[in-house]
From TrEMBL, chains A, B:
Gene3D superfamilies reported in the protein's UniProt record: Aspartate Aminotransferase, domain 1 (3.90.1150.10), Type I PLP-dependent aspartate aminotransferase-like (Major domain) (3.40.640.10)
Keyword Cytoplasm: no
GO biological process, one term: carboxylic acid metabolic process
Range of residues in the leader sequence: none
GO CC annotation: cytoplasm
Protein's organism: Pelovirga terrestris
Protein name according to UniProt: Putative pyridoxal-dependent aspartate 1-decarboxylase
Alphabetically ordered keywords of this record: Decarboxylase, Lyase, Pyridoxal phosphate
Length: 549, 549
């Protein structure tokens, strides 16, 4: 062995055996985060936005470096180029996304999880993590379905059944639910071995139908489209049913859609209800949907990725009434359970449902083993369930209730602020803790009602442009952040309008911060080019209705 | 607000604003892991195994606790009940699974990643993490396909294309590859809008064929069966082709399988080559497979989840020759890139392939944006790519080469030890760093060749029982660990036998440790009940061939 080779080998062993010194560059950052993560993020995440094109220059090499880099050198790069240019998702003024500040205990517990590096696919590489994950699934199952003690005693650790599946997020959870629903509908019968074995085309023959469809409202999450594609159903068969004025599925339209499918001899694989739409936080009429699903005998899935934890609240739980009749429910842990990114779950009312997607392998997932991997879409998986277990234990039902109640109250107060301010327009009032609004100056609001639809449309187009521009500049300034989306408002008929979207899940987002968000937006609007944009509306109005502005 | 409510609210704010004190129970564990993770694991993970049924008792409550628990109290529970009963995956004597020790820098860097809590689905919640992840994909792409500088300059940050998809692991990577292959084969044509829109049954009509199939050897990973089910193809259409004596796909059998499908008018959606089978670490003849895929014009996917990083080695890279002709390649980062659990990738030769699964949504993933979420199966995802970026930068090509070379050399030495020991039988020799073997006493090996197949089968059944028992007791003793699987050995025809499976990826697994693994197995075999089991073979032989033993 050459001297260089020996030196390289020694260095290699070092990175596996010698911890980072506390006074090293990386050790110091580690300490700083341990001591005060909020302070660390405040100091190191740069507020003012560099353009993405500019940031890309720091990540443009496609060649893997030949020689090793010192950890200290790499850490400096991470600090200056990655951390500095990341998004301060935990900042209380960042109320545009579904990622909140994390409880402090999550970070040191995450380190334990990372250090243990368990693989939940099988007991041999996860041991106690397997029953722990099953317990988490049982706890969430019970939160939704409120079964008897004896039910959970029977199923919680039953190796041949599962109360749900833990996964990397709500998308995989929704896909898993629809996968199980599809395979159950197309199960073995007579000389047909089931869709899982024989495939979808043969399954349609067996069911003697022309296709399968999924029914959901227009506000359904984009993961459902992915599921329709992935499962071979086709996006065209994801039927987007019209909503009422409150973004809830319209039951009459649902029935019509169902009847149309019947006429085409298309079977409904699942009806999906939403408990907290991503864009507006509204909840579908779950009781009526459950009735309908029972009537037409189809799988009823509820996507409660966002709204599920509302079940913790004695005050607001009633909003989700009917969820306990769902065959499956998606809940994201990295949203309102305040767990770091990458944790979702799907729960199944009937512990037998997941057997429709069961699979085994020789070297792992042996039949009858307690390996969790036999009922999940993913294979190797980390022990993230530990952090859900920690949240449920440390925060408890009462703590989560407080978080939910706080968010909903704050959203209502924010809605009041918006309504109270003559130059803002509340587009969707919060049912949970999400609302949408836009800047719409009082003088324009007053005139708009009297204009014809063509001019209204034109004004909305200009306001859309304004909203986009305000949202962008606010984000770039880096002090506060709201997101934006496009949706229909009953006030403007079928025209989609662009709106600010606000999610109030961060308990540190105080009323002062909300006031500051509105103040900053007014401030941005007052800049000369945006005032000019607004006055272009006046021109248009003058052209066609001289006295309107 | 009542006094209790106020107190609860204050406590709630505390968990979001007050860091764990360094001298608290959790703070102390955090410090201990920072200082010396190996020492922490050594001290806290209990070697001796409790039964799973016993462990389950600690995780049997299905009710979420009403009231909060003190962090210190919960941490004590975690330490005593979860950490103590987890698996010491990093122990150098644990050579049965694909999870190795982690380089030390991974833990503090993981903490930075967790603290930032970015969501890679869209730029608005990940900023610099988006170009960083795209860079990682480009680096791995280049490792495999060795494109020109100009190629990567063009595509690395191109918003409408992707060189690959980052995901939670190899299973999602394989599914993504086959999903893209299926949709590309069944793309839009004439009045058919494509499978993604219209679904699989209409796609078969459009292609004028009776079904789709996936071809892979018998050693294919179980995720491919999941993919066949999920994608609506059906497990029956995952055609498992026979292997040669070295666990590599038999090309003549492949051609026969293909011809049979042709006769049934079934189109091949993808041919899958394996670079490092999960059970034996063998590599398919990728050049011949690439030729065949080109001849029949089908998508060629290589599952290099395990073996991909062999490309770092100047000495062993040639084993993977042909991989550069694959349309897509899976590589797991949590295997031989030494990243914590939950990181995989799929790379696509042609940057246009992933457009076959592209999807958009109003509030995120707007068309033309650089949001990574438009090309991934998963939705919200953590910034795990950062840890791959760190590994590639800090360890470098030379470092990974050393790790690969070390593992392969060590596996060869372990194979020599096994062969040298008269009471062990090497079942599959290592091509990479995986091998299988079993305990098979010399006296029995000598006789076995002369016995008829029925008696050989009987003896193998008894040896299977012995292997299972030894593996179980070794695991339970907790000092060392090998896994087990069942496979065919050319020596015993079509009968599957149970074998020990060893994976040598932990650079700290020295020769001494390997000797200790064998010594412990001999020791277990010497226990009276297992000796009795072995002597039952003598009885059988005496019964049917008195002089044989």
């Amino acid at each position: 062995m050459t001297e260089t080779a020996r030196a390289n080998l020694e260095n290699l062993y070092r990175i596996f055996t010698v911890p980072e010194a506390p006074d090293s560059t990386l050790g110091a950052i580690d300490q700083a985060i341990s001591k005060n993560v909020a302070d660390f993020l405040q100091k190191h995440v740069v507020a003012l936005e560099r353009s993405l094109e500019d940031i890309e220059k720091d990540f443009s090499h496609s060649q893997i470096p030949d020689e090793p880099t010192f950890v200290s050198e790499y850490t400096t790069f991470v600090k200056e180029k990655l951390v500095a240019q990341s998004v301060h998702t935990a900042a209380p003024g960042f109320i545009g996304h579904m990622t909140s500040a994390l409880p402090y205990f999550m970070l040191p517990l995450s380190r334990i999880m990372m250090a243990l590096n368990q693989n939940l696919v099988k007991v041999e590489t996860s041991k106690a993590f397997t029953p722990m994950e099953r317990q988490v699934l049982a706890m969430l199952h019970r939160l939704i379905y409120a079964g008897e003690d004896s039910f959970y005693q029977q199923w919680i650790h039953d190796s041949r059944h599962a109360l749900g599946a833990f996964c990397s997020g709500g998308t995989i959870a929704n896909i898993t639910a629809l996968w199980a629903a599809r395979n159950r509908l197309c199960g073995p019968r007579d000389d047909f071995a089931g869709l899982a074995i024989e495939g979808l085309p043969r399954a349609l023959d067996s069911l003697n139908c022309a296709g399968l469809a999924i029914l959901v409202s227009r506000r359904g999450h984009y993961s459902l489209g992915k599921a329709a594609d992935l499962l071979g159903i086709g996006r065209k068969q994801l039927i987007l049913v019209d909503t009422d004025a409150n973004n809830r599925i319209d039951m009459a339209s649902l029935r019509e859609a169902y009847n149309r499918l019947q006429q085409q001899n298309i079977r409904v694989l699942a009806l999906v209800g939403i408990a907290g739409t991503t864009e507006t936080g509204h909840i579908d009429p779950l009781v009526e949907m459950a009735d309908f699903a029972a009537e037409v005998a189809c799988h009823f899935h509820v996507d409660a990725a966002w709204g599920g934890p509302t079940l913790f609240s004695d005050t607001h739980r009633h909003l989700l009434r009917g969820i306990e009749r769902a065959d499956s429910v998606t809940i994201d842990a990295h949203k309102q359970l305040y767990v770091p990114m990458g944790a979702g779950m799907v729960l199944f009312k009937d512990p037998h449902t997941l057997t429709a997607i069961e699979h085994h392998a020789n070297y792992i997932l042996r039949e009858g083993s307690k390996d969790l991997g036999s009922h999940t879409l993913e294979g190797s998986r980390p022990g993230k369930a530990m952090l859900v277990h920690a949240g449920l234990s440390i925060i408890g039902r009462r703590g989560y209730e407080l978080l939910i109640d706080l968010g909903i109250e704050r959203a209502r107060r924010f809605a009041e602020m918006i309504v109270a301010h003559p130059d803002f327009e509340l587009v969707t009032a919060p049912e949970l803790n999400i609302l949408t609004y836009r800047y719409h100056p009082a003088w324009l609001q007053q005139q708009m009602a009297n204009l014809d639809s063509q001019r209204r449309q034109h004004i909305n187009d200009v306001l859309d442009q304004l909203t986009r521009e305000v949202q962008k500049r606010q984000r770039e300034a880096g002090k506060t952040f709201v997101s934006r989306t496009r949706l229909r408002s009953p006030v403007y008929g079928t025209q989609q309008i662009t709106v600010f979207r606000v999610v109030l899940a961060n308990p540190l987002a105080t009323d002062d911060i909300l006031e500051a968000v509105l103040a900053e937006q007014r401030d941005i609007v007052s800049s000369p080019d945006l005032q000019e944009l607004l006055s272009s509306i006046t021109d248009i109005c003058q052209l066609t209705a001289p006295n309107c502005c």
